[in-house]
Request: fold
Amino acid sequence: IRSLRTARFADAREHVRLKAMPNHLILGGRFGKEYKGWQAKIRALEHDALCQLLETKQLTLDGESFTDEEVIVQCEFIGSLDTHEAVSSEQKDLLVIMNAVPDQAMLEEGTCREVVNRVQKLRKEVRLVVQDPIEVFYKVLMPSDDGGENGKAQVRDEAKADAERLQRIISTQTQPISKLIGKPFLPADRKLPHAVVVCEATREVQGAQLEITIARETPVVDAKRVAALGGGDEQFAEHVQQLLTAMEPAALKRSLAANGGEVNARLDGKALSLKLGRDFSLASLEAAS
Reply:
């Protein structure tokens, strides 16, 4: 439910019809033989009169006063069932009306849930658990533009439209998707060359093909700063990158926790003390921020 609005029956004429039901037990004894005529009068009461009865708990009809116990007001939905769903209370004195037509935002949320579902199923297939430090990369595959017969061209155009729609939705909903999967959800071109890929698969999402790559959380060195530690040697920075990438993520985090956010290592006989946030970051998302 995206929003909830309450309204009085007096303000919901386009959706609700009120009808009056005489209380036979009370009014039958009150009017005796004349009750049949009073039944017709009560059943003929219009919307405004019944709204007044609901508001004031009483009404006057042809000189006779009636309470809301003697005249029971019931409601029924008169709107379109093509666009709305309606449920009344057991006493039919309350009506809940739901707009059953999804708006664009709701449709896009549905697409996001499908993307999340594909990612979570892939994680389960390769037996990853929630705690595993990973990054998830995506790429929407566009259909090849290779000409062909009119029928095939039409199918290709539809597939292209599906792919473009999925690309647009994901690009605007990356943050919600990341939150739902609990991991960074990044375009494929953000995957670093040295990333350790755990698995890669293509899944269908609403007519489009989505390539999903799951990689281990990747340490990213500050190449310029780390190269300076090696006397300005850029290759030294690459070796440090390889060293950190080769470490198991869990072992790396344990080392950081034990050494106040630093990793102590030796490379080419040189002692190194690399500080998280200064010399390197964890995950492509942090490195790009």
